Amino acid sequence: MRNVWSSQPFCGRRINVVALRTLATATTDASSSLTKTALNDLHKELGGDMVPFAGYELPVLYKGSENGGVMKEHLWCRADGKASLFDVSHMGQIRWHGKDRVKFLERIVVGDIAGLGEGQGLLSLVTNEKGGILDDTVITNAGDYIYMVVNGATKFDDMKHFEAVLSSEFGSADVTMEYLEDSMQLLALQGPGAAEAVAKLLPSTIDLVRMPFMTGQDTTLDGIEGCRITRCGYTGEDGFELAMPAEHAVSIASKLLEDPNVNPTGLGARDSLRLEAGLCLYGHDLNDTINPIEGALGWTMGPPKSRRRLEGGFLGAKHVLTPDGKFQKVTKKRVGLMGMKAPAREHAEIYNAAGDTLIGTVTSGTYSPCLKKPIAMGYVETEHSKVDTEVSIKIRDKFQPAQVTKMPFVPSRYYRVPE
Predict the structure, then answer these.
(1) Is the peptide bond before 408 cis (omega within 30 degrees of 0)?
(2) CA dist., res. 329 & res. 293, Å (int)
(3) 43 phi, psi to nearest 5 deg
(4) Rounded Cα gap, residues 24 and 20, in angstroms
(5) In angstroms, what is the C-alpha Rg of the chain?
(6) Closest CA to 83 of 187, 229, 213, 192
(7) Whose CA, among 39, 123, 185, 386, lies 20 to 30 Å from 224?
(8) pLDDT per position as a tens digit, 278-295
């Protein structure tokens, strides 16, 4: 499949940019002033079609270049030797300090933070008292501190929640939250060529061949101090998130873009790439009424009989886990959907195969540039969640047959260190 991705010409089908604009605009109050990232002028110079997203002005796609547009930008990220550069500076970067930082974090997220060796990271979930998901987050043990990245649309609510828990349960504890605000910018470099491209900016002491996925460290980038690299991403490909001081973001991004294999990429392709990879978009596929089991994210708490599964301890654990660490039964589950002739968009109703009983709702849907067919994810009643279950989706007032399918839709290619 890799060779197919690297050789596909532009397809005749177009990603629904109107839907993407609606998604972007819905995340911010139109009357509020938008924050501009340090790369704002560079985006516009490159042809960025700017839209509001999570209170920021960000490019949904790039116009005027031969590799611009959602479809081309998407396929570039999957192509052999290529890499896509995303501005994700809207996301919230937090450092946690103090000897009680691990204890506090294990109260607010479901993952095994104590088990992280220096440099190791994981995807975790922030939960409320009922076990609902407040956000998804990547957390890395940076040695002297813990580095956390949260979603841009939720970061301020997240921090209010963190402060409330600190105040109510950890008043005398030694733990401090340092929000990096916009003084640190964040870029994501994703794709099969990401390692080769970023290696040109890294010191020779960093060996990316031996750097596992979901690890990170402080570093220099193009000789600039105060930067950080994490091997992670939101596309299903190998890739990195690069944090750097805001005053150096343009020079670092420009240096990466000097590589002909690196293409600037907008929010539109970021959304279609993450959906092909079966990854959730908070506020659409996850919210504070959905728990980790319903969201098919129970694995973030660890395998059966692991410490976090047995001890719980996070907010809402009793609503998610049984006393012996098993998953509580749920009435609905997140699933993949394929087989539709037309894309099923968010809020489309899912019925049983006969079309006479409503069983769920689509939360994300698009046309897959790699598979050349519609894909979607959504929630269905648990008894209909088994792979290959036949369902009907109401699209434009017509029922279309579909099937529950495994995710990811496109095989993930996260990096593995050679043995």
Answers:
(1) yes
(2) 8
(3) -55, -45
(4) 6
(5) 21
(6) 192
(7) 123
(8) 999 999 999 999 999 999
